[in-house]
Amino acid sequence: MTLEELHVLFLQYPSICTDTRKITKDCIFFALKGPNFNGNKFAKAALKKGASYAIVDEEEHSTSERCILVDDVLETLQKLATFHRNKNTARVISLTGSNGKTTTKELISQVLSRKYKTIATKGNLNNHIGVPLTLLSIKPETEIAIVEMGANHQGEIAFLSSIAQPDFGYITNFGKAHLEGFGGVEGVIKGKSELYDYLIPNNKYVFLNADDPIQQEKLGSYINKSGYSQENHQYYTISFVSANPFVVLEMENMRIETQLIGKYNFSNCCAAVLMGKYFNVPLSEIKIAIEKYQPQNNRSQIITKNGFRIIMDAYNANPTSMQAALENFELMETDNKTLILGDMFELGQDAEKEHQSIVNLARNKGFTHAFFVGENFFNTETSFKKFKSFDDFRKHLEENPLKTGNLLIKGSRGMALERVLDLL
After folding, report:
1. 98 belongs to an annotated ligand binding site
2. C-alpha to C-alpha distance for 216 and 98, rounded to whole angstroms
3. Which of 65, 86, 213, 248 has the highest CB neighbour number within 10 Å of its CB?
4. Is 38 domain-assigned?
5. How is 167-182 classified by DSSP, letter by letter?
6. Burial, 7: exposed, middle or buried (Cβ in 10 Å; 0-12, 13-18, 19+)?
7. Which of 227, 257, 292 is a domain's end point?
8. How far apart are CA 305 and CA 288, in angstroms?
9. Residue 48: which domain range?
10. pLDDT tens-digit profile of 216-235?
11. What does the entry list as the binding residues for ATP (predicted)?
12. Rg (CA), the chain
């Protein structure tokens, strides 16, 4: 079956499934493989559960006329996604960066949806499987598709760009994330800039934070761009007003009062404003969209429980976002502050240095109450309380319950620090 024939079939059955536990009637099941699973073995079950067809790449599992045998299922999914993307008129915006990708994507989606039929990456399905699935969710009526692209190694953004073939691009920032995979900060900059490496030679449009020196250097005299800035008036001027705790920004004498905490979310809001302006969304509609947006999934959420006011930022962490969170917490005009910080993963040989830096920062910022959880933090030199595991921390809290106050809870996803809520 040719790619074009497969696409015709997809238009008849425009629902893709890669997990037999989530089969929907008349979907097409793609039998993906992973280190610990082989989707080919579940093709028969997928058809039995209601899938219209199963795409397989092992002949022994092509047991029905509704099984379509291909050379490589993943490659077929990716090529089908690009083919579908090019068969539709939707304009594609791709974004990547070290921090803030998902929040920025959600904000852009909220803003552009005020005027256009818009689809966006669901959750953080931003890898070599998630990007194709997002592209395949484009409908004939879709006008704008917002595609989040994540990576932890060089070459991944280049590959995802070749699949999505974006018309527009934005990089949130270059931070200390996935240092192990990228090979240090310079590797991060090179890896994330692969989006520029696709956009610029193809004369595609770039949005930028003009106050970011790396972005300014990378884009140089490239003409096909627009940016936002607090001070450089050759770009669209957006002013930071405050973040105590919620971010307030102002442009064209209009104030936007968000439900996002932390100054680090200012640039995320600015990107959404900039794209709204570019796509001619009225400023009054941009204001409504951003002010209505509420963060979810443990991303900078404020939670009130049993006398505690909690900044729950336990979805992920790296040295850059951890530093920003501490700086924001320090500036909050409130007393009785306590830090509960968990290990930051994927830092490789920099892990010891970066965890010690965060401990030192907490001390230098004047915090007096802090708990550090995880093996990396346990190996730091500090007078703060530290625990090798969450279970050790749990036992401590059970014996020494926290009193009411303001908490910042932040750590990498694998630490699952949202479990602290059950202990308050």
Report:
1. yes
2. 17
3. 248
4. yes
5. SEEEE----S-SHHHH
6. middle
7. 292
8. 29
9. 3-73
10. 999 988 999 999 999 999 99
11. 97-103
12. 23
